[in-house]
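Need the bound structure for magnesium ion, inputs here:
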Amino acid sequence: MQDRYLGMNLKPTGVADTPVGDSHSWQLTMRPESSAVLVHPNAQSNVLSVRAKAMIFADAQSQALLDQVERFAPSEATVLIIGETGTGKELVARHLHTRSGRRGDFVAVTCGALSQTLAEAELFGHQAGSFTGATQTRAGWFESANGGTLFLDEIGDLPLALQVKLLRVIQEREVVRVGARTPIPLDVRVVAATNLDLPAAVEAGRFRADLYYRLNVVTLQVPPLAERPGDILPLASHFLRMYSERLGVQQPEVLPETQDALLYYSWPGNIRELENVVHAALLTSRNGVIRPENLRFAAMPPTTSTPVVAATAAGADPGFEAIRSALRRLLESQSPELYDKLEALIVKETFASSGDNQVRSAKLLGISRNNLRTLLKRHGLISG
Ligand SMILES: Nc1ncnc2c1ncn2[C@@H]1O[C@H](COP(=O)(O)OP(=O)(O)OP(=O)(O)O)[C@@H](O)[C@H]1O
Ligand SMILES: [Mg+2]
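Answer from helper R.:
Posting the output first, comments after.
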């Protein structure tokens, strides 16, 4: 199996088929004949990103995503992966390919990086002499992915003129090189990714509705990191281990208050930001310990000027701090009817923990029995 990222070949020396703790290393070699065709604007970071040694799916949300990947992998269906920047869309696409049993390559193309003038030839190939500079006949990315998976990253950036051509290739399962007449049959699984709101782009006339429906046969939503807090510490220790090994240093200890700060932060840049924060923390740590001050977050926590660490140090109840940070995440995710849900949670938990005893529940909450009865009725725990 060969794995390419635009002008580069990445040859796996092991296979990534176990999600947690698997270990596979990648060797990077240049593919000279194609590096002239496409140069990725951010090639270095992408090379790093595909060299992840393990995948962490610890949170229940991530495990559910992994289950979906396993379920959809063997099918031929086109998949649309949706998620904010840095959430792991490409990693999910690669895993989908690995688990698909398809023997061809995984070929990743960043649609936003396709040059305006050559994009069609890059995707679909061209005949010699079909345009100025086309000295040789060349296969496009679709043909390179034959028998495998074509990953169309940032699909929302694909120019409208190409969208219609892409739709035709996907529908007819064949490609006609620029300047040629004979179609070439294809067996390519298309996986597209976006961090844009594609329905809004369709609404605004920037994305073709027919292509959207064609791509969206199966949708995989990759949740933001803040919505899968169970992944934060396992990912942090994974990156810490990875960078410590790379630097040849002993893996430092992460203080509990540092862990709190990691859990409490909102992670607008998601896993990529976590990786950078952990890497930088390792570089600035002293005496084998990572302290909160080693964490350099890109964004300030949105709703507070008192970080959890300060509050904990000042003697606040850590239980409340955990609730406070969970609440912030819920506020950021704009969970609907939040107040009502929280009230229901308090009442139900209290009532259950006191063995459905009204007097004890009222006492636990520090409210009158009448008030408690009103709440119990409101949330359907006693009949009114
Ligand atoms: N579950 C995971 N376990 C371990 N590392 C991960 C996981 N998910 C993502 N990463 C790492 O996080 C970084 C970002 O992942 P990836 O490039 O797949 O995100 P993306 O959603 O494609 O981002 P963008 O929208 O910016 O292109 C990479 O270094 C990747 O290896
Ligand atoms: Mg990506």
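Comments: The first helix runs from residue 32 to 35. The pocket of adenosine-5'-triphosphate (ligand 1) is lined by residues 49, 52, 55-57, 83, 85-91, 195, 235, 238, 271-272, 275 (CB under 6 Å).
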